[in-house]
Amino acid sequence: MKKLIIAIDGPAGAGKSTVAQIVARQLKYTYIDTGAMYRAVTWQVMQSDVDAGDAEAVQKIVCAMQIGLQYVNGKMRVTANGVDITEEIRLPEVSRVVSEVAKLAVVRTAMLTLQQQMALQGGVVMDGRDIGTHVLPNADLKIFLTASIEERAKRRWLELAEKGVSVELKDLQEEIYRRDKADSERTVAPLVQAKDAILLDTTELSIDGAVNAILRLCEERSRSV
Ligand code: CDP
Ligand code: CDP
Known about the structure:
This protein is of the alpha/beta class. The chain is 51% helix and 17% strand. Bound molecules: cytidine-5'-diphosphate (2 copies).
């Protein structure tokens, strides 16, 4: 069976990385979390004195840094210049700044090249905001995963609570709203549903339900390509 290239985009907390990882595992494909790459750049910028909006200074940081995505005991670990930052990049501090860094053309160009190289061999599930529209416009299957903002904020809140990070649900919902707005309104590669993407609303759908829906679409698609 031909190895597909699958693009999953959508707003924060829609379930993209959870669902994409399971789909990739079931199909024995490679999962690529592009949000983790933007978060890694943001973390590196936050370690310096550089302002997140200073494109020239951020460009220097991006050019000098090495981002690693590796699987260790079945879990994806993210490194920046060899330092494991898997946990740090998920902290609310990083979430608050990431959209500002991700809107810079210099950052997007660097990530686009890396992400396209990673998908060259096929058999890939890549998730993010601009995968179906910019990174992999010829993907075999494009999914736009979404859910109501209330549901997405609740999911993120539960996830943070399990890690012992306490935040107000209301603040989290506002942060997600602001980030979705910034991601959707930026000039370069904004978050938008690709014309040929299939919309999957997971507000009322379990993780298994979303995974099964995507696996069914993969099966259909692999018969037709
Ligand atoms: O997990 P969550 O949905 O909260 O975010 P993420 O997928 O880790 O992405 C973090 C941020 O990176 C997004 O809010 C975007 O600003 C940026 N991003 C992007 O611009 N393009 C992508 N392909 C992936 C993420
Ligand atoms: O990657 P994205 O930001 O789109 O979302 P995620 O990090 O995969 O999912 C956010 C949280 O929602 C995780 O804790 C998932 O377990 C949960 N989730 C859920 O409860 N129901 C779904 N249908 C999908 C995800």
